[in-house]
Amino acid sequence: MAWIKSHAVPRMNHYRSSEIKERPEDGLALLKKYIDVAPHLVPPSTDESGCANVLWHPDLHLDNIFVDPDTHQISRIVDWQSASVAPLFYQSGVPRLCRYPGHVREGWVVPKRPENFESLDKNEQKRIDDDLESETLHKYYEAQVCKRAPRHWAVLQQQTVSIIRKPVWLVTGAWENRDLFFLRESLMELVADWEEFFPDVPCPIGFSNEDVVFQAKEQENINGVGHMLTLFRDQAVLPVDGMVDPKDFDIARENCRKFRDIFIRLGKNDEERELYRNLWPFQESEAEIPAVSEG
Length: 295
Description:
The chain is built from twelve helices and four strands. By secondary structure, it is mainly alpha-helical. The protein has three domains: 2-40 and 160-207, no CATH class; 48-156, no CATH class; 215-288, no CATH class. It has a two-stranded antiparallel sheet with strand order 1-4. A two-stranded antiparallel ribbon has the order 2-3.
């Protein structure tokens, strides 16, 4: 909060509004709400598994895990700068290496192909097989956790943990990282479920109708841009997270400009096109950006 008071300045957040700037006061008000609920965002003292302190690597994926090609054993794990020792309540989860992005079926079931699989076209079959492989890996991870890490498994089974702890994950650097939307979303979700989680405690925070309207608009814009980028990335024309090999940079930049122009032209009028121009996530300096024709 001290950093925001000393250094933050009003800024445009085009996902939220093209006219009203996001103010440091907005961030401070949100942090005040977080402080009001923070005493409740901790595991109960009776939850031995949730209170257990563990060392946790938060970014396990194939680029961070080295495997000996001869023994097929893990030889080292790198990229520990975000690792921490904290209660399992805040740490538990399925690493993205194994995490299935869709709905994971409950229970010890093995995902299977649909009965009409053979009648589907090749692209649909590949999509289904990719999904099955991802979900199977997710279920395998859960099975191994249940077998080998009972405390972790106990926390994974608590359905409320992910909602209660999410504000804790998002509060650090919320203004600097432009995460006010996600922090606000997590607090709104907490408010919505408060009576279920804490039936004997009045909820200490709330949100106005205006807050809800602006949040919904921002969500709509984020979803729209996200959907468009997913389409572009699925066609392998834009890199994931904007990261490219240096030798592919020129091609990636041209693709980015090409699909930026397509995205902007989706606007129905000058106002919408200007909004889409500002929402495009891979921004270049004005001197680098070619003009976009409206034809």
